[in-house]
Amino acid sequence: MSTMGARLTRVIANFNVENRAHREISKLKPRAAPRHQTSVSFPQHNTADKINQRDDPLLSMLKDVYVESDNPASQVTMLKKTEQETERRLLKFSLPGDPYGICNIRDVPKGKLSLVEALTVLNNRKCMPKTWTTEKMAKEYALDPRDVKALTDFFIPFDVKIIPAKSVENKLINDS
User: Fold this and answer.
1) Whole-prediction pTM value?
2) What is the DSSP letter of 129?
3) Which of 88, 125, 127, 136 could make an S-S bridge to 107, C-beta 3.0–4.6 Å?
4) Taking residues 138-156, what's their average pLDDT?
């Protein structure tokens, strides 16, 4: 039924297309609204001449300007070097294959965790809090101990809790 409807709409849309197009083209174009008369005339070509004209007083003031610099460019180059020199460590855990379209990451900068590693660390901490202390996690993954403490304090992996029904009557849904 849908192909039949599509054919019907196409036939209706294409009916007398050429005559409708000629009729639309031959119509008179709408006239532009009349312009409001002003008492001030604006020079159109003088502004371009003024821009290109040389202004000697401004040029002499510009020559008086003196700029001193303490060579801040060296700081920028130092920052670029430190970004390149950041130590990296190999991943401890990663997803098998490439299931989520994440590029194949082999290493991360020291002091950082991948998402899979963060979930693994939090799950290890939840399952075995005596063995996975904040100090051990910081040492194992080359992290700052303050960051690990904040991670364990503020992020908790999901807990799935299934609460059983107290009685059979609660399981049934009554129409009322």
Assistant:
1) 0.42
2) T
3) 88
4) 90
